[in-house]
Design brief:
- With about 220 residues, the chain is α/β, with parallel strands linked by helices.
- Helices cover about 35% and strands about 20% of the residues.
- It is built from seven helices and ten strands.
- Helix 3 packs across helix 4.
- The radius of gyration is 17 Å and the shape is globular.
């Protein structure tokens, strides 16, 4: 599959590494594609670089891995028509980095995931890969077994596609619902970010633990 990844940060490059390892062709998109020359040399066959528009057009599946506060701007630069009919993985978190600790921008109704879907009415946005550090995107190794990747989106087939990608990358996937719940995944990312910064625990990931038992109407176990 051809994968187009908008972004040139470590998030974009580590996702690209995973896709390349799985045998996909990958294009990284940047406002300044020439700065990706070192990455191209390191990545070898199957790796390409281009503008945002070239990358969105190249990808059969597209990933948003840009600054979350500027993801809609990146979509406009890339051209929404170049995403038409495609699954779009939204790995962004809209952060205010001006203070000692990051702060999450947006709220239910105008989360990054919802704004990106609004900017891409002809595409199928799935929020995923935003609740863990980039070092653990591909084949994460934790003592408790494979961690869980939360995802949300409005199209069931698109979520199934992203779930299959998560599985190939070494994750269990958990579908939490529609794109209207993206704010809660972005807020979950803040838990990862804050505990990583304040506690120095960068090697961490989430896992939803369940046990058998009846569930009462309020959601608790009996």
């Amino acid at each position: 599959m051809r994968i187009g990844i908008l972004g040139s940060s470590d998030v974009a490059k580590f996702l690209a590494r995973g896709f390349l390892s799985e045998g996909h062709q990958v294009m990284l998109g940047s406002r300044e594609p020439q700065k990706l020359s070192p990455w191209l040399r390191e990545s070898g066959k199957g790796a390409f670089s281009g503008t945002f528009a070239e990358t969105a057009k190249f990808g059969e599946l597209v990933v948003l891995a840009v600054n979350g506060a500027k993801s809609v701007e990146a979509i406009h630069i890339a051209g929404a028509e170049n995403f038409q009919g495609k699954v779009v993985i939204d790995a962004t978190n809209p952060l205010d980095m001006s203070g000692k600790l990051p702060k999450l921008l947006g709220e239910p109704g105008n989360s990054s995931g919802e704004l990106n879907q609004e900017a891409l009415p002809g595409a199928f946005v799935v929020k995923a890969f935003n609740t863990v550090g980039h070092a653990h995107f591909y084949k994460p190794e934790f003592p408790g077994g494979p961690p869980d990747m939360f995802l949300c989106g409005d199209d069931s087939k698109a979520k199934e596609c992203v779930g299959d990608i998560c599985k190939s990358f070494g994750w269990n996937s958990i579908d939490v619902g529609g794109i209207g719940l993206a704010h809660y995944l972005e807020a979950t990312a803040m838990v990862w970010i804050i505990t990583a910064i304040t506690g120095g625990h960068w090697n961490q990931a989430f896992k939803l633990l369940r046990k058998d038992g009846a569930t009462n109407p309020s959601g608790g176990h009996q």
